[in-house]
Design brief:
The protein has a single domain (about 5-160), classed as 3-Layer(aba) Sandwich (Rossmann fold). The relative contact order is 0.21. The longest helix is centred in the middle third of the chain and has 17 residues, at about 95-110. The chain has helices at about 15-30, 50-60, 75-80, 95-110, 130-135, 150-160, and strands at about 5-10, 30-35, 65-70, 85-90, 115-120. With about 160 residues, the chain is an alpha/beta fold.
Length: about 160
């Protein structure tokens, strides 16, 4: 039986840290469903389709990676997809605190649901989508923080 995990996130934008987690996840699982969360309470910089496209381009159509999106609770989506494992990256202690609470809430809602955490590599522990958006908004160089195709799109969005 194939080992499958969901790697959820807003990916607004996709960073090299996200790509590294995807690559590391493929060392642990046979398949990954990288799923973009569609949160109506947030106003993303990039559309859902743009974010999905960034991921597809970054994984170079690796057949082990499926790119999808979901609305609502992750556990409902996981149940719908028949997947019982979520992959999450941790950058700092503050991430752990939030993810620990979230993992326990998810297990309360779906007892067979498991969370697998991997530590972000030292090259990307300080990188977040929020910080990348902020740097790009003020004309900073995001080279090396995001894949080249994402950097290009960030530059287009940052032109005022």
């Amino acid at each position: 039986m194939a080992r499958v995990a969901i790697y959820p996130g807003s990916f607004d934008p996709l960073t090299n840290g996200h790509v590294a987690i995807i690559q590391r996840g493929l060392n642990l699982f046979d398949r990954l469903i990288v799923s973009v969360a569609n949160n109506p309470q947030k106003t993303p910089l990039f559309t859902l389709d743009e974010r999905k496209g960034f991921i597809l381009e970054a994984v170079k159509n690796d057949p082990r990676v499926e790119v999808d999106s979901f609305d609502g609770l992750l556990v409902h989506y996981a149940r719908q997809r028949g997947v019982h494992t979520v992959l999450r990256g941790l950058r700092a202690v503050s991430d752990f605190d939030y993810e620990f609470q979230l993992a326990n809430m998810n297990r309360k809602l779906l007892p067979e649901f498991e969370s697998v955490f991997v530590m972000t590599g030292e090259d990307y522990f300080y990188v977040s989508s929020r910080l990348v958006r902020e740097v790009a908004t003020f004309g900073g160089d995001v080279t090396g923080l995001v894949p080249p195709h994402v950097a290009s799109e960030l530059r287009k969005k940052s032109i005022r």
